[in-house]
Specification:
single chain, mainly beta, Thrombin, subunit H, 6-stranded antiparallel barrel, globular
Length: about 100
């Protein structure tokens, strides 16, 4: 099936700009981050600290409006880059499981 857009990924990325919380799967302490984009398979968010690649995280994205429901999922960190501008780290993650 030919695609009529430049994006060649399996899922189109959607830009978002809303808060999220995350915690390591083995830790009870939640941390704050900022969701930047989301797709059917993964996400990119800004974290205040560097996270290890292959780390499993529990993530909750809560949009600012009630039109879109929150996303609560287990994700696996696959990429970590220092932000070019500003503090923090860009975290690329694959969604492994959507939670209730």
């Amino acid at each position: 099936m030919a695609r009529e857009y430049d994006e060649k990924r399996d899922f189109i990325r959607v830009s978002v700009d809303c808060g999220l919380t995350f915690r390591e799967a083995t830790d009870a302490d939640e941390e704050q981050g900022l969701a930047r984009n989301l797709s059917g398979r993964g996400m990119m968010f800004i974290a205040p600290r560097e996270l290890p690649v292959d780390e499993m995280l529990e993530v909750t994205i809560t949009p600012e409006t009630d039109v879109t429901p929150p996303l609560h999922a287990m994700v696996k960190v696959v990429r970590v880059d220092k932000q070019r501008r500003g503090d923090g780290f860009e975290i690329g993650a694959i969604i492994k499981q959507v939670l209730d």
